[in-house]
């Protein structure tokens, strides 16, 4: 039953994000809710009222009114929506500038490569996390590639497609960005809450699109530093990837040990 | 006036009357008539029935998808089959059903009748359009007979997944050719209807006396002329890439995959209004007739249609917010603006019902279904028009739910139109009892299918995934959604049964069963070849009402 209660919660059903950008997205979502719920109810109410009130019942010999224009009324319901739309646009514009802001000097810069059907995360020192899922069983998370990043720091992701169009999508980031051959896409993420978050390709990319999943492991900055120091340059953490994609680097460990519900 | 009195004296006692045949001589029947007829009514019926078959086929594919998704980690169909299903489902629904059903089916049948014309401007050309369309439908289906199966990359076929190296085999080529043919058919129909409206209106039928339906079809036809050639060009480019080693969309060779998205959506967004506007027109006609009132704000309604048409040419990149390659504020502003004329339409529809005497029959119920669902789809549209929120919801089930509310809302209007004009097409009414049952099932099933999908999207379920992990919190909502799909399927079966059984057994309707207002109700049911022997005087946008109710003319002034 708790699946349904989500809809009745204060945020008009939207989940909580875990990034600093989350604030702007959800403010905008709430604002849209404040406008659209009353307007929707008003219009629905008017329709219901008109139908019930003016329904023709048996033995009813009312004559229908034959009016056609009411210019002041028509002008009103043209101008008010224009104003509402302008207000929404204003708030959206300011939120957009916050969400899309790119830091000149991010704390960490990671390259995210998508390919049919897996992910490769390349760190500044050349360390690579790479993986493709087990195509036989979507319920196992054993072979998923893991994107490790620090919390409370600006992480800049540079997303690159190695073949077709993919989309980097992590639900808790409230964020999608496409990986398109020929387009350089860069965005900043600042996660405030450490944890394991599932991510997934969000653009149809061929046969095993559904299996193109990954995990984001957000660690406290100190923990991340320790982890990063342990990854030698040009080392690979791999999961379910054939030797060809490993290149010349030596494999130091394999498999992620994530399982169970990601919500924690 | 006298004309209409004579009309009502045509009776249907036990046998089909020999309706006035203006041109004497034998007529082809059955298959031969279906193949050769250049009569706009026959061609309109051909379109309507072919489109309904496509709806059934695409609906079955939807049921396959919902069955696959009913539980996590399901293996009802393979990945490739699932990908075929959503690709061809979307393609058929958009290119073979939803568009042609309204603008070619109802458009062909009704536009000449509503403007008092004997036929379309180019009757043979019209016949060719239908056969191109049927050819397109056949090619799309033929993909399933090829060794690699039908196209598997979604109905908007993003390059470079559609390139020969990623999607080898004839399935993708048949998809290209099939859509290309339906596109050509649409362009031909547009040329035909625009010419008809501009040249064949009856004396007195000035532009501002045309029914809203005709206005909406006219604007739709201009959108087709602007949008479809771009699609055809993009398809030609992709064909060159696939077969002649072209490099339009291959990044490694200097091509630009993003170009495909721009070209496709430059067609694709006007296409959404090509699908929606005719249904707006249908609903407007039904609401006016069933409320026994003139359309409220007739000229404002036309202005709203025109501005929707104009704005729709400048919003294509709202499908591409997450590409990082478009000017977000411009497309957001344009997309949000479309809410304004759409809102005007809603208030005009309410105004049309206000203080009327509303007959709540099946056609009207479907219109109310349209109003409520399209309203919801419109509101989620305003949410998705904002790039920041689209970053969150892009390509999730929230989007799937949004556009199904919009499109299936439209289809509800189309089903209303079917109930409304069925008596004109066949001389008989569809059963009200089965009609209301069908409506209840479709309305309930539809909402059960798609309402939970909003929440699925917020919970992060991407569209077009063949299966999902059991631990994501998506299981229950998917189950609900699939059950809803089955209920919708039963509702469609009931409606289809009603449609076919009423053809022979329905209650005899007479010429003007709903006390209609526009010209199509001035000729017999079904109308004879070349439609009219004589016309009532056309002094407003509802000549038949004026003739039948001289005591209830439209009030002048506001």
Description:
The complex is a heterodimer of chains A (264) and B (558). In chain A, 29% of the residues lie in helices and 26% in strands. Chain A is an alpha/beta fold and 264 residues long. Chain A folds into two domains: 2-99, Helix Hairpins (Orthogonal Bundle); 108-254, Immunoglobulin-like (Sandwich), CATH 2.60.40. In chain A, the strands form two sheets. In chain A, strands 8-5-1-2-3-11-12 form a seven-stranded mixed β-sheet, with no helix packed on it. In chain A, helix 2 (22-53) packs antiparallel against helix 3. Residues 4-9, 242-246 and 250-264 of chain A have low confidence and may be disordered. With 558 residues, chain B is mostly helical. Chain B contains 17 helices and no strands. Chain B is 65% helix and 0% strand. Chain B has helices at residues 2-8, 30-36, 40-69, 79-114, 123-142, 170-199, 212-243, 257-291, 298-312, 328-337, 339-353, 362-384, 387-393, 397-426, 432-458, 475-505, 543-548. The model of chain B is unreliable at 1-22 (pLDDT under 50). Chain B has a single domain, classed as Cytochrome c oxidase-like, subunit I domain (Cytochrome C Oxidase, Chain A, Up-down Bundle), CATH 1.20.210.10.
């Amino acid at each position: 039953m708790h699946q349904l209660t989500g809809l009745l919660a204060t945020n008009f059903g939207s989940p909580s994000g875990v990034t600093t950008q989350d604030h702007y997205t959800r403010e905008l979502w709430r604002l849209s809710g404040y406008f659209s719920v009353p307007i929707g109810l008003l219009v629905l109410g008017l329709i219901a009222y008109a139908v019930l009130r003016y329904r023709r019942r048996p033995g009813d010999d009312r004559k229908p009114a034959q009016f056609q224009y009411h210019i002041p009324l028509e002008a009103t319901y043209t101008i008010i929506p224009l104003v509402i739309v302008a207000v929404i646009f204003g708030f959206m514009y300011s939120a957009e500038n916050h969400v899309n802001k790119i830091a000149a000097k991010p704390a960490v810069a990671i390259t995210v490569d998508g390919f049919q059907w897996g992910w490769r995360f390349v760190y500044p020192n050349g360390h690579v996390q790479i993986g493709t899922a087990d195509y036989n069983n979507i319920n196992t998370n054993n072979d998923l590639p893991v994107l490790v990043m620090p919390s409370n720091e600006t992480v800049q992701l540079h997303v690159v497609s190695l073949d077709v169009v993919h989309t980097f999508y992590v639900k808790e980031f409230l964020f999608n960005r496409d990986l398109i051959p020929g387009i350089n896409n860069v965005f900043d993420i600042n996660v405030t809450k450490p944890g394991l978050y599932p991510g997934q390709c969000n653009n149809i990319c061929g046969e095993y699109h559904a299996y193109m999943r990954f995990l984001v492991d957000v660690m406290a900055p100190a923990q991340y530093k320790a982890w990063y120091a342990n990854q030698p340059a040009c080392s690979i953490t791999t999961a379910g990837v054939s030797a060809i994609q490993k290149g010349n680097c030596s494999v130091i460990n394999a498999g992620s040990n994530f399982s169970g519900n990601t919500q924690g | 006036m006298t004309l209409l009195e004579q009309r009502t004296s045509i009776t249907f006692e036990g046998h089909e009357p020999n309706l006035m045949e203006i041109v004497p001589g034998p007529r082809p029947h059955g298959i031969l008539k279906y193949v050769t007829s250049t009569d706009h009514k026959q061609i309109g019926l051909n379109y309507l029935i072919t489109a309904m078959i496509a709806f059934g086929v695409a609906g079955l594919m939807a049921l396959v998808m919902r069955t696959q998704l009913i539980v996590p980690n399901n293996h009802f169909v393979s990945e490739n089959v699932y990908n075929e299903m959503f690709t061809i489902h979307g393609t058929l629904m958009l290119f073979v059903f939803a568009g042609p059903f309204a603008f070619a089916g109802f458009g062909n049948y009704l536009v000449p009748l509503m403007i008092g014309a004997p036929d379309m401007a180019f009757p043979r050309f019209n016949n060719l359009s239908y056969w191109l369309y049927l050819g397109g439908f056949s090619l799309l289906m033929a993909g399933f007979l090829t060794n690699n199966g039908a196209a598997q990359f979604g109905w908007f076929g993003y390059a470079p997944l559609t390139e020969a190296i990623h999607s080898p085999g004839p399935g993708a080529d048949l998809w290209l050719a099939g859509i290309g043919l339906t596109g050509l058919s649409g362009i031909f129909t547009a040329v035909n209807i625009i010419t008809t409206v501009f040249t064949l209106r009856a004396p007195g039928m000035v532009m501002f006396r045309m029914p809203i339906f005709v206005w909406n079809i006219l604007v739709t036809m201009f959108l087709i002329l602007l949008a479809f050639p771009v699609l055809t060009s993009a398809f030609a480019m992709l064909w060159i890439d696939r077969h002649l080693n072209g490099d339009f969309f291959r990044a490694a060779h200097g091509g630009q995959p993003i170009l495909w998205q721009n070209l496709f959506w430059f067609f694709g967004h006007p296409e959404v209004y090509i699908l929606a506007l005719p249904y707006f027109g249908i609903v407007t006609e039904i609401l006016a007739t069933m409320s026994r009132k003139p359309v409220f704000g007739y000229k404002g309604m036309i202005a709203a249609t025109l501005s929707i048409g104009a704005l729709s040419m400048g919003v294509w990149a709202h499908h591409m917010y997450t590409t990082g390659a478009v000017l977000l504020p411009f497309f957001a502003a344009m997309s949000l603006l479309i809410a304004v004329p759409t809102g005007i339409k809603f208030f005009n529809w309410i105004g049309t019902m206000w203080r009327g005497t509303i007959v709540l029959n099946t056609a009207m119920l479907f219109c109310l279904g349209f109003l409520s669902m399209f309203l919801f789809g419109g509101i989620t549209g305003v949410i998705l028009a904002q790039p920041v929120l689209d970053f969150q919801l892009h390509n999730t089930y929230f989007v799937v739910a949004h556009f199904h509310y919009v499109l299936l809302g439209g289809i509800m209007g189309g089903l209303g139109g079917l109930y409304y004009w069925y008596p004109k097409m066949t001389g008989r009414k569809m059963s009200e009892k089965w009609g209301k049952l069908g409506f209840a099932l479709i309305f309930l099933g539809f909402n059960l299918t798609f309402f939970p999908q909003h929440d699925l999207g917020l919970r992060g379920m991407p569209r077009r995934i063949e299966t999902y992990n059991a631990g994501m919190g998506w299981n229950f909502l998917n189950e609900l959604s699939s059950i809803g799909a089955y209920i919708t399927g039963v509702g469609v079966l009931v409606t289809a049964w009603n449609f076919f059984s009423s053809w022979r057994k329905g209650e005899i309707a007479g010429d003007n069963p709903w006390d209609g207002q526009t010209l199509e109700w001035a000729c017999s049911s079904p109308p004879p070849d070349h439609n009219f022997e004589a016309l009532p005087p056309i002094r407003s946008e509802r000549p038949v009402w004026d003739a039948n109710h001289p005591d209830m003319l439209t009030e002048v002034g506001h």
